[in-house]
Amino acid sequence: MPRTLEGQITMEKTPSYFVTKEAPARISSMCKGTKLIVVVRDPVTRAISDYTQTLSKKPDIPTFESLTFKNRTTGLIDTSWSAIQIGIYAKHLENWLLHFPIGQILFVSGERLISDPAGELGRVQDFLGLKRIITDKHFYFNKTKGFPCLKKAEGSSKPHCLGKTKGRTHPDIDQEVVQRLRDFYRPFNMKFYQMTGQDFGWD
Ligand SMILES: Nc1ncnc2c1ncn2[C@@H]1O[C@H](COP(=O)(O)OS(=O)(=O)O)[C@@H](OP(=O)(O)O)[C@H]1O
């Protein structure tokens, strides 16, 4: 990490930290005051999004439905499949709480980041002790993209949406499989709501 001067904040983004066993101890030993921000979304949609991303790079992989189960007849879910495993947020969070107090972690709702980006970024700015500089007036809803975009990108006067790899169309998944996954995640989601004190409304 680069040196941080007075009045500066150093930020780093690596999605896999949240699910990496060694990460909390390593980050804590580097700087135990580090503030942590985790963006979470409905684990079922997250799993489908994850699969969609892999499919775009490897079009020959098996279907989502077949990868979901260890045994489709018994309905046993393959929790070793990373797309499924990553969404068990309560388990990953337990590992972080061994090294960080819960107040040092901000949980951002992936759903609200889309429906109310300024509101969610307001929470981020408060958490970081920053003035609320980014507000509603920085965003507009781009109908073609189907997502909020920035009215002006940094250092430019032009609007800016996230790239083609963000906001891909997901394949249709068998609704029975989706329901089975909803049932699977429910207890873990409830535990996660309890641990964070936030109801993300995924059920
Ligand atoms: N404003 C805006 N524009 C486009 N996309 C948005 C936006 N806000 C949130 N999202 C959601 O971000 C999802 C992609 O982010 P990831 O976390 O998968 O990115 S990363 O590759 O892990 O960095 C991406 O998931 P998919 O829809 O599955 O592609 C989006 O739903």
UniProtKB/TrEMBL annotation:
Keyword Glycoprotein among UniProt keywords: yes
Disulfide bond residue pairs: C149-C161
EC number(s) given by UniProt: 2.8.2.-
Regions crossing the membrane: none
Superkingdom of the source species: Eukaryota
Pfam families: Sulfotransfer_1
Enzyme's top EC category: transferase
GO molecular function: [heparan sulfate]-glucosamine 3-sulfotransferase activity
Keywords: Disulfide bond, Glycoprotein, Transferase
Domain Sulfotransferase residues, every copy: 30-186
Keyword Transferase: yes
Binding positions (3'-phosphoadenylyl sulfate): R41, S49, K166, G167, R168, T169, H170
Family indicated by similarity: Belongs to the sulfotransferase 1 family.
Protein name: Sulfotransferase
Organism per entry: Ficedula albicollis (Collared flycatcher)
Gene symbol of the encoding locus: LOC101819701
